[in-house]
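Q: Predict the assembly, please.
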Amino acid sequence: MTTATGASTSWPLEVFDRLRQADVRHVSYVPDAGHSRLIELSIGDPGVVTTMLTTEEEGIAVATGAWLGGMRSVVLMQSSGVGNCINMLSLPVQTRSPLLMIVTMRGEWGEFNPWQVPMGQATEAVLTAIGVQVIRADTGDDVIAAVTQATAMAYDADQQVAVLISQKLLGKKTW
Amino acid sequence: MVTGGSGRSRLDRREAVARLVATRGDALIVTGLGSPSYDVHAAGDHDGNYYLWGAMGGAALVGLGIALAQPERRVIVITGDGEQLMAFGALATIAVAAPSNLDIVVLDNEHYGETGMQASPTGHGVDLAAAAAATGFADTTTVRSLDEVEALINRRAGETRTGPRFSVLKIEVDAPPRSLPPRDAVFIKNRFRAHLGHPPN
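A: Predicted assembly structure:
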């Protein structure tokens, strides 16, 4: 994975700080290279409960349950996992429960694997179709601002929000 | 206790659920869509109930989220075999998360009752309790009679920090009169959160 600037390598730490400042205490994830720092930071914080998922839609249901119980959650996934979530998203949409998703994009910039392209190209459209607000972030600074705004929209305004982190920022996957 | 299609004894679903609900104490209850929601509602509506009307495959995981947020409260998920089968991977997720306060109860009639009683995989040999045990649930069981349900309730009554627990209740293949909980998900959400002392936004 290549990163071009200092901002693009430090954003996970800043994002994690913003999430913690907003009292997000639960993080669920399907392992992903683009989220690896954020996942490590979450696991390393004794004030954060982490849940490893077998498939992304589980995180949508867990986040809604956590909110029912009074705890703020964030769901981390790759764009390929967004398609798995569609029907489960009816749960936070219909219950009007806060939902914060942070999605690392594939299939949109320098992608070498054609199998990532269909879902990468469909990610924003399907999220919008089911009623999730989409905020795109192309730079490290964008990600920090987008997550801060998305957290407020989710937890202050009862919205379901996804931040899509551009593959431009994450860099081409190297083998 | 009634003999069902397999020739072995089976529970009356309403009797079994009524016993679970009557002994809930301060437990929170999440129900899977369809008949489990009707069964729990028939046993008496409660502010600490969260009824799902959709999001199939989500019941046990909503229960996990509540259990993580409310570690001092027992959380009971009551759902059907079809709903739990749609979330087969969730057994692994819950076992690894290992919430000691979560009970999953599957009302297993080996059929999809809401859609015309088509056979489900549990009627073809899939053993959900064995699957839960394989993933690492602390306590798994399958029961077929009201006496076994009572024994299970009594055995677990003193356990405050044991879980996650997984129970399959083999029930009759029937469809009791529907007892419909409110379908307004926001109302139920706010009522449930208020029960826990959380204000609506």
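Strands of chain A lie at 24-29, 49-52, 72-78, 99-104, 133-137, 160-165. Chain A touches chain B through 34 residues (CB under 8 Å).
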